[in-house]
Amino acid sequence: MWKWEWICWFVNLVSPNPAERIRRYRRLIERLSREADLDGGWWRVFRDYPKQAASSTTVLSPGASDQNADESIAVVVQGPVVQRDELTIQTLQMYRQTMPHSRLILSTWNDISPQLRAQIESLGVTVVTSEKPPHPGPHNLNLQIVSTRRGLQEAHRMGCRYAMKTRADTRIHLAEADQFCRDLLNQFPVNAASGQQKRLMVLDFATRLYVPCHPADLLMFGTTDDLLTYWSPELCGPEMTFRVCDKFDEMLQQATPEIVLCRSYLQRTGAKPIDDLPAWWEMLADRFIVIDRDMIDLFWPKYNYNVDQRLSMVWDNGNMALCHFAQWMQLYARRVEPSVTLDQLRQQRVHDALGEGSCGASTAARDEAAAA
Q1: What order of strands is seen across the sheet that includes strand 73-78?
Q2: Beta strand pairing status for 288-291 and 200-203?
Q3: What is the pLDDT, as a whole number, of residue 338?
Q4: CATH classification of 69-363 is 3.90.550, yes or no?
Q5: What is the pTM of this model?
């Protein structure tokens, strides 16, 4: 490790000018990538995301039209303001340009400074605050519930029919992503018997195919009423904890935030308990829609963000596989069923390979085979 530290020290030493330093680091990255590609079995791809919003107030996507009251959308950005690189403020400024017809709401904590709040409100953003709950919950679940619910309540008060729930530490780069999500929801109507007004849109990361009741909570889109119902569970007590497990069966029994939220929502809406994979896949097909991060160009500068796209389709060959839009379409259009059972997976370790494809044969194909 000290050798890499020395290389960085040397680059900084011979590059007092920031622009020159950045240029040399980029050349070093490109050279290392070429060297790695020579002997490895992968091509490594890097891309740049701007830290700052465009200075122009011009809408980045042409053809935007005013929305009527029935199509109004709120973009609820929840969580603490990330001040490094002005991530949250620059994100809100970008959203003002790329989603100009939506109401922007920042739902954060009441310890935000008056100066920072005034700076954000000057962008045309509505700021609402909450007091932090006494217990954060597993993986800060209580914090996410409180701030998300407060933002959605404000969206409801504004009369917005739709809402996009996203986080203060993420950024969507697709222009008019709000209208894209609304239009996609309208293309896949939900069954009225579900009790939902519309489907709930979630991301592939981290919607799990083989972990029942595990839709992603990083970003959600739906009607404001549906999202309020989803994000209004009872807060978790201090007795509810989460720990990382190596065995798949033990992992299923943990208080994973996504599972806690989804099970609570299904219970409060009168849905049948989900206790096997076929029921979970049916639920995904009937009540959700899963989109890929790339479809809205989402960036999450957290953890090892330089390689976060390794959690993509080529890696989805085990029991923790993600559900991408392509897999969701198979569930929706062809009603495919799992090639493994949950009991079989319970015998495995987390991230073990399935031994078969991520999706089994379609119902029609199995019926044809049985008839033959």
Answers
A1: 126-130, 103-109, 73-78, 162-167, 220-223, 200-203, 288-291
A2: parallel
A3: 93
A4: yes
A5: 0.83
